[in-house]
Amino acid sequence: MKRILELGNIIYQHFPTVLEGAFRSDSKLEQLFSAIMSGEVNSDEEASQLIYEQAELGKKYFMLKRNLIRKLWSLAEDQLGSAGLVEPTHSQEEDCRRKLATSKALLNLGVYENPEKILMEVQETAEELCLSSVMIEVCQQFILQYALRKDPEQVLAWEHRLRKWNQISTDEGSARNFVLMAESRPAWHSLNAQIAQEASDHAALVKTWLDTHPTPVLEMAWICLKMYQCFNKNELGQLIPLQQRMGALVTQHPALASYTDIETWHQFAAKAFRAHGNLDEAAHHLQVCMDLSDYRFFRLFVYQETNFDLLLKQQDYAGAMQIVEDIQTVRQYKYLWIADKAAWQIRTAFLYVVMQMSGQGEWFLERFPEWESSQIIHELDQTCKSITVDRQGYQMQYQMARLLLFWLKMPEQVDNIGKNMQAFYYRHLKDLPELRTRTFFKSLSEIAIKDFDKQVILKKRRKFIEQVADYPYTFDHNELVGFERMFDLMIHPISTRS
After folding, report:
1. Alpha helix (H) ranges present in 276-316?
2. pLDDT tens digits for range 356-415
3. pLDDT tens column, 118-139
4. How many domains does the chain have?
5. DSSP per-residue codes, 118-169
6. Which of 82, 111, 140 is the endpoint of a domain?
7. Same domain, 383 and 401
8. Residue 361, domain extent
9. Has residue 248 been placed in a domain?
């Protein structure tokens, strides 16, 4: 079932026209495909019941399912290469291997001149595209050729090259695995010291390999690891030169530009420019990521997080509300990690608070009427039970959003909530590397304890500006709404109450 969904999503996203006429309109094959893609059925038993009117899985159903997978795979395979969705080096690597198979067959027949020319051609391509595994086979075939020619000096020379390329291949494989390890960590929203240290250690090791044999693959891995290190240590200023270096590397070696590397490059660039307040440049880089992704492959959920963040800072509330609606209506939303669902509720809470405090609450409630009731706070509490371990990320955002919701809906309780937040600050946030977030959270808890007194807010705002004056970043990682703007917005409902 998952294979059919995956293949169907790929075809729908990139080349939906090939489905026209692919199935007979009245065929069981078309009926099964449509039912699975529309969500009408979610299991083999449901599909069998729909098509054969029996839940028990039989031979006919399994044959039908197998034929559908073969059909979809054939459609996808035919289109991937022609649509340019196969990674650039894949087809060239396959071409190299075909030529190597030909040269080896000729060598086994005792022919030398043609195989040598083929090997020299493959060698040039493999070195240009950084295909270390292909170069290993080139070296092995040259050794075989010169052994058959009784030329021991050339055999030794190519044996030396073989050892070199074996080491390069081993190092490149390890470097790629280090990057994958960093990418595989749970996507909590707090900065992660463990990821930072691990990425730092791995980057240092990759640097020693890079100094020995400077290949583009090793340099790409080193840059990715340094990006993970800098991001998780809140050293965002280093991200811009790193992404510029990656851009130059990809330009110089376009064969390296896998879709994953392109997305990593632009994703970190967006984070770096956002941190420095260059929201237009951040949006430009983010759009590249979004164009390469789709909700059906879940990566778009990640990029929409940053997109929502940028729109909120640019006060594009219509765009932010549209993202919330899109997120909640796409079928894949129900398969999101429970913490990610909680995070979207927190973002929606901030959107509601900001629009309410800026006098646009009615516009929000027209599209999300469930937020008018104070019951929404209880629902937020239940949803956010899954994020308690992410104290310096989602949990911190949740506490700020929750306090502001209470202030708007049940202000008599903000004093106790402020005291709880103050205790949370001293227990979990006083050493947070994000100065702006740390300072604002503490100020917000103290403002709540003083019942959001206007003079207290003004005093805390002035002190906040003084404390972050020399801080190098315009926005912190967990800063959904600019904190200076949050101070200003807190004044608006006070002036309308008094």
Report:
1. 279-291, 299-313
2. 998 888 899 999 999 999 899 999 999 888 888 778 788 899 999 999 999 999 999 999
3. 899 999 988 887 788 899 999 9
4. 3
5. HHHHHHHHHHHHT-HHHHHHHHHHHHHHHHHTT-HHHHHHHHHHHHHHHHHH
6. 82
7. yes
8. 337-498
9. no
